[in-house]
């Protein structure tokens, strides 16, 4: 039996190959780098071939490694499918620990969490609102809900929804200014600026794929979209804000979309990030599956705006 490779060794090899790093694989699998390195060496010894060429700068799959990786991934997929059948009989229960950005979590979390907890009465949720990027290897968190345009993280992640941003202001503020017909007019007005939605200090607009940039003079600059939303509602100027935060304001008339034919050139996506090893937990898996169904192709907050515009005859 000693000549057979274990499923653990195959899993570790697959994660090393996918992440391109022994240390990254170790973090995801909650193992030490030395344990991961030893597992890879034992697998190569038992198979009698070199799978990965190691250097101080990089890891490169050998030809044998590529062939074995293809078979290894097929084996792991079969195992996962088998476990899926068993998980159907296991009801999620326990304490689910979720991290979310402050704005998204405070505005949307109670809605989708309530539905999930109603569906799984044996699950309790602990929601941590924090704008810093949680290190899953160091903190006791199961799922991180993160809005980003980056895709270079080392965690497993599932795409949940596109995040749309709009330029908006209060109707009272807009009524006191000349009608805005082009982005170039905005830099003459009071602007409420969220730095993450600028590039080199400029706001960017897209219309029919053509970019336009302006450099606003901030009346107020803040790293809190919640603070900027409050300022916009109070009539302090024009802000670029996420629709998940202001959909209700658009519908009740507290805010109006500025230049609806234009959109910001910067785009973000909402992801659920997790350690791949935790995805086998029925509670983690069911929660992420719930979010995918709940948000769908168009998340609820964007559907609300679409329905409002359709009922009002706004194009």
From TrEMBL:
Keyword entries, A-Z: DNA-binding, Transcription, Transcription regulation
Record-level Gene Ontology MF annotations: DNA-binding transcription factor activity; sequence-specific DNA binding
Gene: dmlR_2
SUPFAM superfamilies: Periplasmic binding protein-like II (SSF53850), Winged helix' DNA-binding domain (SSF46785)
UniProt KW DNA-binding keyword: yes
Protein name, UniProt field: HTH-type transcriptional regulator DmlR
Annotated signal peptide: none
Domain HTH lysR-type residue range list: 1-62
Pfam families: HTH_1, LysR_substrate
GO biological process: DNA-templated transcription
InterPro entries hit by this protein: LysR-type_TF_proteobact-type, LysR_HTH_N, LysR_subst-bd, WH-like_DNA-bd_sf, WH_DNA-bd_sf
UniProt record similarity statement: Belongs to the LysR transcriptional regulatory family.
């Amino acid at each position: 039996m000693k000549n057979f490779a274990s499923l653990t060794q195959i899993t570790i090899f697959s994660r090393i190959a996918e992440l391109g790093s022994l240390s990254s694989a170790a973090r995801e699998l909650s193992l030490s780098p030395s344990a991961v390195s030893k597992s890879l060496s034992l697998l190569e010894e038992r198979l009698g071939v070199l799978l990965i060429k190691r250097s101080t700068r990089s890891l490169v799959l050998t030809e044998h490694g590529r062939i074995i990786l293809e078979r290894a991934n097929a084996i792991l997929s079969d195992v996962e499918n088998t476990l899926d059948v068993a998980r159907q009989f296991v009801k999620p229960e326990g304490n689910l620990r979720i991290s979310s950005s402050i704005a998204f979590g405070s505005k949307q979390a109670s809605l989708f969490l309530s539905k999930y907890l109603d569906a799984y009465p044996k699950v309790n949720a602990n929601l941590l609102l924090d704008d810093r990027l949680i290190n899953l290897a160091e903190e006791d968190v199961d799922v991180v809900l993160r809005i980003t345009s980056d895709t270079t993280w080392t965690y497993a992640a599932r795409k949940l929804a596109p995040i749309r941003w709009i330029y908006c202001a209060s109707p009272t503020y807009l009524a006191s200014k000349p009608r805005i017909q082009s982005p170039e007019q905005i830099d003459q007005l009071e602007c409420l600026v969220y730095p993450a939605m600028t590039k080199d200090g400029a706001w960017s607009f897209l219309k029919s794929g053509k970019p336009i940039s302006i450099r606003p003079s901030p009346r107020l600059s803040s790293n809190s979209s919640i603070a900027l939303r409050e300022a916009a509602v109070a009539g302090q100027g024009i802000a670029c804000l996420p629709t998940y935060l202001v959909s209700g304001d658009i519908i009740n008339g507290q805010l109006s979309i500025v230049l609806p034919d234009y959109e910001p050139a910067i785009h973000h996506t909402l992801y659920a990030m997790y350690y791949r090893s935790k995805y086998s937990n029925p509670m983690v898996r069911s929660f992420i599956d719930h979010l995918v169904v709940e948000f769908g192709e168009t998340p609820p907050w964007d559907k609300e705006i679409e329905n409002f515009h359709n009922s009002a005859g706004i194009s």
